[in-house]
Amino acid sequence: MAPAMVTNRRTKPEHPTTFRVVAGWSLIAVAVMLGVLAGWIRYHFGSVTFEQIVNNLPGGGGGEVGNPTLATEGLIVVIVIPASVVAVIAVVMSRLKGHLVTRRRVRWVPTVSVLTALTVLLTVAGVPQFAIAQLGGQTIAPYYVKPQITSAPKKQLNLITIYLESTENALSDPTVMGQNLLANLDSATKGWADDRGVSVFEGGGWTMAGVVGTQCGVPLKNKLFNGSYSLNDFGETVSHYLPNATCLGDVLATQGYTSVFIGGAENNFAGKDTYFRDHGYGTFYGLDQWEAAGEKPSVVSEWGLSDARLVDHAIDTVDRLHSGDKPFNLTMLTLDTHEPAAVYPSCHTDDAVAMATAFKCSTKAVARFLNHLKQAGYLDDTVVMVMGDHLKGTGDHDDYRNVLPQVSGRTVVFRVHSPNPVSFTRPEVDQLSVLPTTLELLGYGIPDGRAGVGVSFVGEHDLSKTVLDLPKEDYQKLLQAPSTGLYREFWETP
After folding, report:
1. Cys staple from 143: which of 57, 108, 226, 467, with CB 3.0 to 4.6 Å?
2. What's the rounded Cα separation, in Å, for the pair 239 and 63?
3. d(CA 375, CA 370)
């Protein structure tokens, strides 16, 4: 009998379609981009909240991403370079036998890579914490008190508020920093009331959160997440910023104050100009005005006008306001100490770290402004508050990123001059209590020392039934809660 024939059952090599090859490599490119984006965010901004990210996107609160150089860098680093690298690898691999991304054994790699990178990105962006807070359904509404005046002083005092970019108390501690970076400020505020127990509230930590927290007495929550903002409008500039919230400028407007904002950054960065104009500030000076007035490029950094030139303008502004016949509210925001540090030829130090120079020079400029107030006699009828807008950033590229996180109980600078005696009555407070404190410093009576969710810390007030009566952990969770109904009301277009 003839031997049985053996059939060759070897399968033909698989030839992937163009679609599968392109799809596989596209997924890998997306995964790389997402991973790089997570690293880029962590590198530049450190630990952030989801609200912070959204509020600084176009449509989140303003019409600009912010620093154009940073935006360009993000485009190149996050999209252009990863896409180019993956494209080159794909071309090389396509010429090799087997088409790597379509082999059965590794066909799952592109999808898993995307899911992994997306998970990392969402974690870095604070999305899990945000989602948990949203699911809780809690609200600060029962604790919110609309700011109102019950009594007024016989003589109205002027108010000057200076927000110092990224300025915290640890910067003045030589045991932490190796030197006192705030020595100029210390000298100019000698004898002032100095509260070293003012912390950033849970969920705060960037400029507009600090401004809204201290002026409105509530955490800043984006319009997008409370049911009053359409996704179709996400790329548009908001026309009004918390229009139905009652904030410091609104209260002072009812008392006849003239309110002016002066700063060096782009006007609409994070919706800043819209906020101030919506809340009682009749005059707003920002980079747009300074450039229109002919400021030279030599005094403008990638973030905006130098603090030294800003102080020149502030001196002119306060002189003009003080010569008027109405009480005034002047708010000022510095800029040079924002990462990356802005260092100008007009101010030299022997420091190897650029940020050290920036803090010394910025506070030197602020000290010049404060000394002008003293020499002109303006302190006799003016309350002056100098405070950090938030803590110094500790992202992977930030100066002092290895030092500051080791400091326990980090707090922002908060120093006050008043023609009347000032006594702080609570050892630990956060920025949400600054609004009622400001009103009491000006001599106004407010119900139980309350405004927003805060309670004044320059008077003895009962904290029972306030948000401050809650256990610390419960209080922190509540501040992160969506409070949908309250913020829908705040954001409703008038």
Report:
1. 467
2. 10
3. 9
Q: How confident is the model over 371-388, as pLDDT tens digits?
A: 999 999 999 999 999 999
The Cα 470–Cα 463 span in angstroms is: 9
232: domain range?
Answer: 145-491
d(CA 119, CA 125): 10
Which one is predicted more confidently, 214 or 30?
214
H or E segment and range at residue 82: helix 81-94
Give the residue from 122, 109, 175, 150 showing the smallest Cα distance to 406: 175
Whole-number Cα distances in Å, 129 to 171, 204, 453, 484: 29, 14, 22, 17
Q: How many domains does the chain have?
A: 2
Question: 0.70 exceeded by the pTM?
Answer: yes
Give me 337's structure tokens: 């100490």
Do 110 and 231 share a domain, yes or no?
A: no
Q: Are 64 and 266 in contact (CB under 8 A)?
A: yes
Conformation bin of residue 165: beta by default, left when phi > 0, alpha when psi is -120 to 50: beta
Both structure tokens of 415: 């120093």
Which residue type, as a one-letter code, is found at position 394?
A: T
What percent of the chain shows pLDDT beyond 90?
A: 62
